Amino acid sequence: MTGLLKGEARILPLSRTAASALRTLAITSEGLEALFDRFGDGPFRDAFERLVQQIYRLRGRVIVTGMGKSGIIGRKLTATLTSTGTPSMFLHPAEAGHGDLGMITDKDLVLMITLSGESAELAPIITYCKRFGIPTAAITSRGQSMAGRAADVLLNLPAVREACPIQLTPTTSTMLQLVLGDALAMALVDLRGFSADDFYKFHPNGRLGAQLLKVQDLMSTGADVPKVRRDATLLDATTEMTRARFGGTAVVDADDRLVGAFTDGDLRRTITGGGNMGARVGAWMTPNPIEIAPNELASEALRRMQANSVTMMFVVEAGYLLGVIHMHDTLRAGIA
Question: How far apart are alpha carbons 163 and 35 in whole angstroms?
């Protein structure tokens, strides 16, 4: 991407605003490359790994703190940690010295995010943590700053150019804070073996939650599942389809194993093919219908239904019929 921003894109006529945008992207990209290279530095990598392990073994929470734009990045990191299995809370430095220091317990770790490392509001937090032996970590661009020297674990960011033309507005530096925070959170996700099921526990609502619903969460079961035996008549199958209103019925053997399906489309083909309502459904059913396991994602069920141009699927485990899921079930759940 850097090559495109620095080279090829500049052969095109650009407006002043487009050129400014590309310059911002190019400088940010350089900053990300510098952060990537920083992981080749043994002390930095060791500090990162030590912090990950310390948070992993933590019995309390990660208390994230930072002023201004660093604080905004800290709030985002807090949300990411909390939603991926690491209890976390944001502490506003300006409120800390007015009673909110009581939020910090001796089981917690305080993570300071600060560009300069000299924010005066951090001083009471550092003093409190030192007094009560609470571990601290700092993400800062100035390792010799107040926060950098006080931290038990220091993640010293590389010195980078800001994208701001007057080099005052934090831009590249806050991007590095954001990316390093994400790297920290994802390392913990990997270390914990955090799964899609775990993610769903914290995201039951909204589109993310819908994408993680399982077939078993949406399928119909019991008497709501249309099914007939192989030796049932076409009239029996039609009656069962009409009762259940799924547009089809499962065909099962004596042990309730799925052996076929009979749908509205099969009924039309039967009538046009010369079949009569007294014929056995086994002769006109679709053998080996598409099926899905109950623990698969409902989004996968929707994908298979769309790929096979059907509106329903039978839910099967070890060959046995457990339920049925309809496309409308997935749409109502907000999966599409």
Answer: 16
Q: Which residue has the tokens 């699927």?
A: 313
Q: Are 81 and 88 in contact (CB under 8 A)?
A: yes
Q: Could you report the per-residue pLDDT of 164-176, keeping only the tens digit for each?
A: 888 888 999 999 9
Distances (CA, A) of 65 to 80, 270, 283: 14, 70, 70
The DSSP secondary structure of 25-89, one letter per residue, reads HHHHHHHHHHHHHHTTSHHHHHHHHHHHHHHHT-SS-EEEE-SHHHHHHHHHHHHHHHHTT--EE
Q: Could you report the per-residue pLDDT of 266-313, keeping only the tens digit for each?
A: 888 888 887 788 989 998 999 989 999 999 988 899 999 999 999 999
State which H helix or E strand residue 325 sits in. strand 320-326
pLDDT tens-place string over residues 56-66: 999 999 999 99
Q: Is 116 left (phi over 0), alpha (psi -120 to 50) or beta?
A: alpha
Amino acid 275: pLDDT: 74
Distance, CA of 178 to CA of 205 (rounded, Å): 25
Euclidean distance between CA atoms 72 and 174, whole angstroms: 9
DSSP state of 288: S
State residue 258 phi and psi, 5-degree precision.
Answer: -70, 125
Q: Contact at 8 Å (CB) between 327 and 308?
A: no
